[in-house]
Write a structure and sequence with these properties.
With about 500 residues, this protein is α/β, with parallel strands linked by helices. The longest helix is centred in the last third of the chain and has 19 residues, at about 475-495.
């Protein structure tokens, strides 16, 4: 039977996901079989397992740290926001429908058996399970029927580590205030406090830590320094969006359009660890500038995000750069759909209706309720233009989308009428990368993870700029992540009381 420990936070974005990943890597290094678990995740970054099931990328990252393949039982409930008041609800990797926040709040208690079943599956395979909470356990308006914080800890009888973010300020109030709002039975579960993202001389915290321990009655198990690890963030709080780049050191400038409902922005992480390459997330024309490559990423609400794209002026700016300045444009998933000629939503999958899109690729998309979920691999064929160097390279990736994309018909209105006649054969006639001039589109997430493909993209851009002598330094992205997991584990070993944490581990009560 597995031993369990749970990491909860004083708020979203305090670093729970990374603390969980680091602990998993430590336990793995110490010889244990380990696995991550998060009962409910809300994020637009998701992944498709080998079985074609959908789960949150944070638990995929944690599974990598644990040295195991990701399984949907690590994240049985995934909520993907569709607007400000509702989400697509995914249970055990399958979409069960869209719900408003109120509807889901009333429904979620019914999912407890699914959570328990998923956890039992993991417990058969792991010596230690590290559970991640969500948001804060002190969100008193959401505590009724809680299934992700203290409610989850109670389900499996887990001790809790509570993490606060000193980088945001007020960490002592965060930690102590959170405990004050807990029920007595919940307070008893909190066995250790962690101060995360510290910069400076730790001795300056000593008096505050002494007072915090006296007032809370809970040991501070560590002060973790700010870890500049380049791993996959969970959600739109990602600090990647706010990063500033030194243009003096930049040889290749990649601009990613940051749609309001951007999804799977982790697709571009491989480029971030290449010397001389900057990846900027752009929200307005003023900051778009004159990049070497423009990427239209995935979107959870493609039609609404395309309307924003037009209203912001970015669509016209991208068209000008592509048509007048020969800047290559690459669309992935929702961005690929936007590069086509039309998007139809006859079933109201997003917001209904239809919209004419950029017309840069000769395709049209019909949004459908059946979600495409599949891992894909193969060889790229007949890629022309600036990225012709991709031809002949093997690729791996995964598709996850609500649309069927087909080559444009002369009478586009017939596409909706005939959508039920469009089978996989016609869909598959679209290659893994569709190209028209300097415009490229694909449904494949993770296509840049392979070193050969990422290198070919950057080499094409440097050659286009006359920088053929520029040395491209790329570590294979999988190898790079392994190094980061080990580095994170070393940092946590040096700054956490691991003896105390091992003592907190106890058997799960299933």
């Amino acid at each position: 039977m597995s031993r369990v420990i749970m990491v909860q936070g004083t708020m979203s974005g305090v670093g729970k996901s990374f603390i969980v990943a680091g602990l998993l890597r430590i336990f793995k290094q110490d010889g244990y079989r380990v696995a991550p678990f998060k009962s409910q995740n809300m994020a637009l970054n998701s992944f498709i397992t080998e079985e074609g099931l959908e789960m949150g990328r944070a638990q995929v990252m944690q599974a990598e740290a644990a040295g195991i393949a990701p399984k949907v039982c690590m994240n049985p409930i995934l909520l993907k926001p569709t607007d400000n008041v509702g989400s697509q609800v995914i249970v055990n990797g399958e979409v069960i429908g869209n719900m408003s926040a109120t509807e889901y709040f009333a429904y979620k208690k019914k999912l407890i058996p699914e959570i328990q079943s998923a956890f039992r599956k993991l417990s058969d395979e792991a010596d230690i399970i590290v559970i991640e909470g969500a948001g804060s356990p002190a969100e008193i308006n959401l505590k009724e029927n809680d299934i992700v914080n203290m409610g989850m800890a109670e389900l499996v009888n887990s001790n809790v580590l509570l993490v606060g973010d000193i980088d945001r300020g007020g960490v002592f109030a965060q930690l102590l205030g959170t405990q004050m709002l807990l029920e007595n039975s919940e307070k008893e579960r909190v066995k250790g406090l962690i101060i995360n993202k510290f910069r400076g001389d730790k001795s300056l915290l000593d008096s505050g830590i002494d007072m915090l321990e006296k007032k809370s009655g809970v040991k501070v198990c560590g002060v973790v320094p700010y870890m500049d690890v380049k791993l996959e963030d969970e959600d739109s709080l990602s600090e990647r969006f706010e990063k500033k780049y030194n243009t003096g050191e930049t040889k290749i400038n990649i601009a990613v359009i940051r749609f309001p409902k951007i999804s799977n922005f982790t697709d571009f992480n491989p480029f971030e660890q290449a010397d001389g390459v900057s990846v900027r997330y752009v929200t307005d024309v003023r900051t778009l500038g004159n990049p070497d490559l423009i990427i239209l990423p995935g979107s959870k609400n493609t039609i609404e995000d395309y309307r924003w794209f037009c209203e912001s002026g970015l669509k016209d700016a991208v068209l000008t750069l592509a048509e007048s300045y020969d800047i290559p444009v690459f669309g992935i998933c929702g961005g690929f759909q936007m590069l086509g000629e039309n998007i139809f939503d006859p079933e109201g999958v997003e917001c209904g209706g239809s919209i004419q899109t950029m017309g840069l690729l000769p395709v049209e998309t019909v949004l459908k309720n059946n979600k495409t979920r599949a891992q894909k691999k193969g060889v790229l064929n007949d890629v022309a233009g600036v990225f012709e160097g991709l031809s002949g390279l093997s690729y791996e990736g995964y598709e996850i989308h609500m649309g069927v994309t087909c080559k444009s018909m002369e009478n586009s209105g017939n596409l909706v009428a005939e959508k039920n006649e469009i089978g996989m054969e016609e869909k598959e006639s679209i290659p893994a990368i569709l190209q028209n001039g300097n415009v490229y589109g694909t449904y494949l997430h993770g296509i840049f993870d392979k070193k050969e493909i990422a290198t070919a993209v950057i080499r094409a851009l440097t050659d286009k700029k006359g920088l053929s002598d520029f040395e491209i330094s790329f570590t294979d992205y999988r190898e790079f992540k392994e190094q980061e997991y080990d580095r994170m584990a070393e940092i946590l070993r040096n700054h956490l009381d691991m003896n105390a944490i091992y003592e907190m581990l106890k058997e799960a009560a299933l």
